[in-house]
């Protein structure tokens, strides 16, 4: 008897129902539901966690399509049943199976007019639709009449998660990454060890991208609530949405976590993350003799300890160091905002420029030489320096071209030849920090490829911007795309 029960339970779990649920009234012809006109699409919001608003459980959750709230179950005495009787709200959607029901009568509602609700909860993209994303200039209309461009929609700031929003917005413009995550079957069958739930991060990121690019959304913005919950959980509260963090720390952690969750290894093409962002460099390190004259006299510079060491190193982004800000003001007693050219910053990676690095005991001279450029190159412009007492920000403006940036200039002739002349990049994402180190905010600039129009995104605010204005900002993180033609 118990075996029979457990078999039933197993079967019902596989079908996405709960064995405690009552059976649905079945009939040969679908029942016409008289309550479909009570559905209020304006209040429907599937961006938040799928929890029952009364019991906070995740199992068997239904959305009331009249008021938008979530409730558990549909059998008698369940929260959804009680709500339908008390409030006379009758149409519900199972958030897991995507089936519609009428309560308290408990029959399934089958009606093609509800497909738009199903699509908003779970947008699906075909390969043909994904191809069209980079050509289509068509705008979409939200339910309240707002016009929006799919892929260029604001992200809600819950409290202090703008550092997270700007990274998600820029990554959503990286085409191979976007195309991979828009189709759930690409990563649905990734094998993970038993009990490992970090894969949820991958699913949540996929869901978020599908919502950002949804051409039939009900509203012209997205709340990254579920994505952020996954981030808080898997970063063990290192990144939160109530406390500001550094976007470069988040980007580094996020890309590595996605790579591992997709079963990525150290091999270059083992995940979509490495395929898009992984580059290689050679690091030449030489130990310097101690600065004290007495100690230096005892040093044999030809010994093995002071020989140059060469290490091969992969990278997901390049750290560019800004020159120190001038200490003095000009003759008009005004601060000049110093400027520096992007190519000047990149000279760090040409294999000839040496830079001194100090550790607690020893000093080293390092040279960096890029041996392979990735399809998408991320530059991190180091603006903040921490000392014992506080964090300082370097306000130097970096002058960079938006189009036709040739990174071949920093490669050696042999390595440049290996790239077959494909070393020209174009900017697709730019993250800016405004304000002081402690209280600053972040905004992103992204390029909409079909229209070649730049947009500035600061949480829910999305405005078009001229490319000339982008180059005047205090750029912090940039994503460049390799030109294929």
Automatic annotation (TrEMBL):
<keyword id="KW-0507">mRNA processing</keyword>
<dbReference type="InterPro" id="IPR013083">
    <property type="entry name" value="Znf_RING/FYVE/PHD"/>
</dbReference>
<keyword id="KW-0508">mRNA splicing</keyword>
<feature type="domain" description="USP">
    <location>
        <begin position="153"/>
        <end position="483"/>
    </location>
</feature>
<dbReference type="Pfam" id="PF02148">
    <property type="entry name" value="zf-UBP"/>
</dbReference>
<dbReference type="InterPro" id="IPR001607">
    <property type="entry name" value="Znf_UBP"/>
</dbReference>
<dbReference type="InterPro" id="IPR028889">
    <property type="entry name" value="USP"/>
</dbReference>
<keyword id="KW-0597">Phosphoprotein</keyword>
<dbReference type="GO" id="GO:0051301">
    <property type="term" value="P:cell division"/>
</dbReference>
<keyword id="KW-0863">Zinc-finger</keyword>
<keyword id="KW-0833">Ubl conjugation pathway</keyword>
<comment type="subunit">
    <text>The U4/U6-U5 tri-snRNP complex is a building block of the precatalytic spliceosome (spliceosome B complex). Component of the U4/U6-U5 tri-snRNP complex composed of the U4, U6 and U5 snRNAs and at least PRPF3, PRPF4, PRPF6, PRPF8, PRPF31, SNRNP200, TXNL4A, SNRNP40, SNRPB, SNRPD1, SNRPD2, SNRPD3, SNRPE, SNRPF, SNRPG, DDX23, CD2BP2, PPIH, SNU13, EFTUD2, SART1 and USP39, plus LSM2, LSM3, LSM4, LSM5, LSM6, LSM7 and LSM8.</text>
</comment>
<dbReference type="InterPro" id="IPR038765">
    <property type="entry name" value="Papain-like_cys_pep_sf"/>
</dbReference>
<dbReference type="GO" id="GO:0016579">
    <property type="term" value="P:protein deubiquitination"/>
</dbReference>
<keyword id="KW-0378">Hydrolase</keyword>
<keyword id="KW-0132">Cell division</keyword>
<protein>
    <recommendedName>
        <fullName>Ubiquitin carboxyl-terminal hydrolase 39</fullName>
        <ecNumber>3.4.19.12</ecNumber>
    </recommendedName>
</protein>
<feature type="domain" description="UBP-type">
    <location>
        <begin position="31"/>
        <end position="128"/>
    </location>
</feature>
<keyword id="KW-0539">Nucleus</keyword>
<dbReference type="GO" id="GO:0004843">
    <property type="term" value="F:cysteine-type deubiquitinase activity"/>
</dbReference>
<dbReference type="InterPro" id="IPR001394">
    <property type="entry name" value="Peptidase_C19_UCH"/>
</dbReference>
<keyword id="KW-0479">Metal-binding</keyword>
<keyword id="KW-0747">Spliceosome</keyword>
<dbReference type="Pfam" id="PF00443">
    <property type="entry name" value="UCH"/>
</dbReference>
<keyword id="KW-1017">Isopeptide bond</keyword>
<dbReference type="InterPro" id="IPR050185">
    <property type="entry name" value="Ub_carboxyl-term_hydrolase"/>
</dbReference>
<dbReference type="GO" id="GO:0000245">
    <property type="term" value="P:spliceosomal complex assembly"/>
</dbReference>
<keyword id="KW-0131">Cell cycle</keyword>
<keyword id="KW-0862">Zinc</keyword>
<dbReference type="GO" id="GO:0005681">
    <property type="term" value="C:spliceosomal complex"/>
</dbReference>
<dbReference type="GO" id="GO:0008270">
    <property type="term" value="F:zinc ion binding"/>
</dbReference>
<keyword id="KW-0832">Ubl conjugation</keyword>
<dbReference type="InterPro" id="IPR033809">
    <property type="entry name" value="USP39"/>
</dbReference>
<feature type="region of interest" description="Disordered">
    <location>
        <begin position="1"/>
        <end position="28"/>
    </location>
</feature>
<comment type="similarity">
    <text>Belongs to the peptidase C19 family.</text>
</comment>
């Amino acid at each position: 008897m118990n075996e029979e029960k457990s078999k039933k339970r197993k079967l019902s779990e596989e079908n996405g129902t709960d064995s405690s649920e009552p059976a649905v009234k079945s009939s040969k012809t679908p029942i016409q539901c008289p309550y479909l006109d009570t559905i209020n699409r304006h209040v429907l919001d599937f961006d938040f966690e799928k929890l029952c608003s009364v019991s906070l459980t995740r199992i068997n959750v239904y959305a009331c399509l009249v008021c938008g709230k979530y409730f558990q179950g549909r059998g008698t005495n369940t929260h959804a049943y009680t709500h339908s009787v008390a409030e006379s709200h009758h149409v519900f959607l199972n958030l897991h199976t995507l089936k519609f029901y009428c309560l308290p009568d408990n029959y399934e509602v089958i009606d093609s007019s509800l497909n738009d609700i199903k699509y908003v909860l779970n947008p699906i993209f075909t390969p043909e639709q994904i191809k069209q994303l980079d050509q289509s200039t068509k705008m979409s209309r939200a339910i309240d009449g707002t016009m929006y461009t799919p892929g260029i929609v604001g992200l809600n700031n819950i409290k202090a998660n703008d550092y997270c929003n700007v990274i998600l917005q820029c990554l959503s413009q990286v085409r191979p990454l976007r195309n991979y995550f828009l189709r759930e079957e690409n990563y649905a069958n990734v094998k993970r060890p038993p009990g490992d739930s970090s894969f949820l991060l991958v699913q949540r990121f996929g869901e978020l991208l599908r919502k950002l690019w949804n051409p039939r959304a009900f509203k012209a913005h997205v709340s990254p609530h579920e994505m952020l919950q996954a981030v808080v959980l898997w970063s063990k509260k290192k990144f939160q949405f109530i406390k500001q963090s550094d976007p470069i720390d988040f980007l580094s952690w996020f890309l590595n976590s996605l790579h591992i969750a997709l079963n990525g290894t150290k091999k270059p093409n083992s995940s979509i993350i490495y395929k898009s962002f992984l580059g290689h460099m050679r690091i030449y390190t030489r130990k310097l003799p101690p600065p004290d004259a007495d100690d230096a006299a005892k040093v044999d510079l030809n010994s093995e300890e002071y020989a140059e060491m060469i290490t091969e190193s992969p990278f997901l982004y390049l750290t560019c160091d800004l020159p120190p800000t001038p200490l003095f003001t000009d003759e008009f007693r005004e601060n000049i905002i110093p400027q520096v050219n992007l190519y000047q910053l990149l000279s760090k990676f040409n294999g000839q420029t040496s830079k001194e690095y100090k550790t607690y005991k020893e000093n080293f001279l390092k040279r960096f030489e890029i041996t392979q450029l990735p399809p998408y190159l991320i530059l991190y412009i180091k603006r903040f320096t921490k000392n014992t007492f506080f964090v300082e920000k370097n306000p130097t403006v970096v002058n960079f071209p938006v189009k036709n940036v040739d990174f071949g200039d920093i490669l050696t002739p042999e390595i440049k030849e290996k790239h077959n002349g494909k070393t020209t990049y174009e900017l697709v994402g730019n993250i800016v920090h405004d304000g002081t180190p402690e209280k600053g905010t972040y905004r992103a600039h992204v390029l909409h490829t079909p229209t070649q129009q730049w947009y500035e995104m600061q949480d829910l605010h999305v405005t078009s911007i001229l490319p000339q204005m982008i180059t005047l900002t205090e750029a912090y993180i940039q994503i460049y795309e390799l030109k294929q033609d």
